[in-house]
Every structure is written in structure tokens, then in C-alpha cells.
Design goal:
The chain has helices at 2-15, 22-39, 61-64, 76-79, 124-127, 142-147, 171-187, 197-232, and strands at residues 57-59, 110-113, 116-119, 189-194. A hairpin with a 2-residue loop joins strand 2 and strand 3 (116-119). It is flat. It has a four-stranded mixed β-sheet with strand order 1-4-3-2. It folds into two domains: 2-39; 57-211, Flavocytochrome B2, Chain A, domain 1 (Roll). With 233 residues, it is of the alpha+beta class. The protein is 44% helix and 7% strand.
Length: 233
């Protein structure tokens, strides 16, 4: 009996000890939770991959055709190419140069509207091979959108000729095209511009002239440096 009484007295003293007050018990619990949070195995966090950077490019009606969303080289029209002999200054335009690029059908879907090329791949249910606007994929859709026609006869037939200036559109058709253009600007990414074959040749000519000027300036500086070293000797 005396031993039981001693045990009860000891338990009471332990409970009344300053170390086991309710406040300390709460603090110990909080410390235990914090320790668990800090020491528990962490799941590796993987950040989403950034989309590849988009290079703003220059297209011609012929080089735009492969961007029809079909992802194959079955199209006979996209496999043809214009005869532009490549030069050293053309290397930066490999994707835009029909003579050096491989004109195979792409998985991306591009559409041109008033000279601007838009990536409409996110709307492939509309512009893809089975979509209602499939005829516009890889083409200049300006006239078709203005007329509200999805027929192939509103598309540019001469791929190497001048671009359609849309000069014969009436006010209602121009207003319709304005609405479509505003929709494309707000919804899709502009990835380039559309120029005619002649416009592309002019761009190439200016680029060759620029490269030649830079080369001449570099060679002139090198000759001056060599001459200066010769005088010092």
C-alpha cells in the first residue's frame, strides 16, 4: 500500500514539474511538426519546359505551302522549288531559301493574312487537314477570309508572282477582313511575314550587299593593323 502511495506521489510531482506544463507540451508538439516538415523526403519539383524560341522569318507563297499541318512529303506542290543558286550570304536564310531548304510538309500550321504569317497550330481542329478551313493551311488566306469563301479558287495560283493586293475588295469585304485580322492578332503568334518571289530576291540582294560591306570593312581593318605592325618593326 505504501508503495502505491509513493508511485502516485511521484506521478503527481512529474505532472506538476515545470517541464510538462500545457504550454511546453504545445511547444514540443509544434517543434516536432516543424522537424518533420524539414526532414521529410521532398518530392523533386520539375519546372515546365519553355517553348522553343520563335525566329521571325520571311516566307514566300512557295515556302509557306509546306506549313500545312500534314507532316509528310506527299504534296507534290510543296516538293517543287525555285532555282536560286545559294551563296555564302544565303546561309542565314536556309529555312527561307527554296533552293537550300527541304520543302517537306510540316506539322506546324501557318496562315498568312495581309502579309503577316501566323502560327495557327493551336487551332488545328479548324485549320488542320480535317478542319473546315484546311484549304487555308500554308497559304495566303486574305482574300478567302474577306469573301467568306473557303474554296481553292480564292487562293493565289501563281506562287512565284506578285502577292494579292486585294485592291478590288469593297468596303464590306475589307471590314470582314479587318475583323479576321484582329482575331488572328489577338489569338495566334505572328511568326513571320509573306513576300513575293521578287521581294524575297530583293531581300537576298540587300543581305549580300551587307555581307560584302562588312567583309570589306573587316579586310580594311586587318590591312591597317598589318601596316601599323610593319612600321613599328
Amino acid at each position: 500500500m505504501s508503495s502505491i502511495r509513493c508511485d502516485l506521489i511521484r506521478d503527481i510531482h512529474i505532472y506538476r514539474s515545470p517541464l510538462f506544463t500545457p504550454v511546453n507540451i504545445i511547444l514540443f508538439s509544434l517543434l516536432g511538426i516543424l522537424a518533420y516538415i524539414q526532414l521529410r523526403p521532398r518530392r523533386e519539383i520539375t519546372l515546365p519546359k519553355h517553348p522553343p524560341p520563335v525566329v521571325f522569318r520571311t516566307f514566300t507563297p512557295r515556302t509557306l505551302i509546306p506549313y500545312n499541318g500534314r507532316g509528310s512529303s506527299s504534296s507534290s506542290s510543296s516538293s517543287s522549288s525555285t532555282k536560286h543558286p545559294p551563296t555564302d550570304s544565303d546561309k542565314f536564310l536556309t529555312e527561307d531559301n527554296p533552293s537550300t531548304a527541304t520543302l517537306e510538309d510540316k506539322k506546324e500550321i501557318y496562315i498568312a493574312v495581309r502579309g503577316a504569317v501566323y502560327d495557327v497550330t493551336p487551332g488545328k481542329q479548324f485549320y488542320g487537314p480535317r478542319g473546315p478551313y484546311a484549304n487555308f493551311a500554308g497559304r495566303d488566306a486574305s482574300r478567302g477570309l474577306a469573301l467568306g469563301s473557303f474554296d481553292e479558287d480564292v487562293l493565289t495560283l501563281d506562287l512565284d508572282g506578285e502577292l494579292d493586293d486585294l485592291g478590288d475588295l469593297d468596303d464590306e469585304q475589307k471590314e470582314s477582313l479587318d475583323g479576321w485580322e484582329e482575331r488572328f492578332r489577338g489569338k495566334y503568334l505572328c511568326v513571320g511575314r509573306l513576300v513575293s518571289k521578287r521581294g524575297w530576291e530583293e531581300i537576298q540582294k540587300r543581305e549580300r550587299e551587307r555581307v560584302q560591306r562588312e567583309r570589306s570593312v573587316k579586310e580594311g581593318k586587318e590591312r591597317m593593323e598589318e601596316g601599323g605592325r610593319g612600321e613599328i618593326r
